Structures are given as structure tokens and as C-alpha cells.
Amino acid sequence: MANEDIFHLGIKVLVINPDGRILLLHVNLKELSGYKGSAYWDIPGGRIHRGDSINETLERELLEETGLELGKRPTTLIGAALSNIRIPVGDNDVGLILFVYKCFE
User: Fold this and answer.
1) How many domains does the chain divide into?
2) Are 55 and 69 in contact (CB under 8 A)?
3) What is the distance of C-alpha 27 from the center of its chain?
4) Least buried of 41, 45, 48, 50, by fewest C-beta within 10 Å?
């Protein structure tokens, strides 16, 4: 058995309006399989799908979770992190790496 861990890549978008306010979403616990913790606030995002680009993922997740369209708004990578979140996959789990992009509304 290999010692290497397996990870999914999550793409998040930090949406900032002209007043400097950040868009936060209250997480729907019914949609989180295997999560046993309390409700929390998060920024929009999700895992990258096979064949999708980072920009396609940003566009899809922002539209699905907020109804907002990314359109031609520029995005900038502001950070990456190895999350402590484990995602159930079959009889095992995988880690989650997050890339966070900034977008001005």
C-alpha cells in the first residue's frame, strides 16, 4: 500500500462588493455527507470536476450557490491551503486542498 495521500481540489471565491463587504453563505448541513459538526458560514465554492478549468468551476459554483454570474469579472488567486476536511469516498476518504480566488462585485 502506498504512503501517499489522495486529495480533491476545492475552488473557493471570495466575492467583495464595492463597499468592501464579503459574501458569506450559511452552509446547508443536509448537503454535507458525513459531516457531524455544527452549522457554519463559508464562501462559495466546490470541487473541480474532471475536464473543467478553474474558471469554469468558479463560474459554476458561484451561479449554483448564489445565483450570481462571474461573467468577465477578473479573479486573482490569493491563497491555497491543505484543509483538515476529509471527504468520504467509498470505504475510504480523501483530503481536500483549497484554492481561494478573489473577485470584486
Assistant:
1) 1
2) no
3) 12
4) 50
Residue 14 in grid coordinates: 471570495
| Lowest mean pLDDT across 7-16, 18-27, 35-44 | 35-44
Average pLDDT over residues 50-75: 92
Residue 2, domain member (yes or no):
no
Q: Is residue 1 situated within a structural domain?
A: no
* Lowest-pLDDT range of 12-16, 31-35, 55-59: 31-35
Q: Which domain holds residue 94?
A: 7-104
Report pTM: 0.83
DSSP character string of 52-95? --HHHHHHHHHHHHHS---TT--EEEEEEEEEEEEEEETTEEEE
Sheet holding 92-104, edge to edge: 45-47, 7-16, 92-104, 75-89
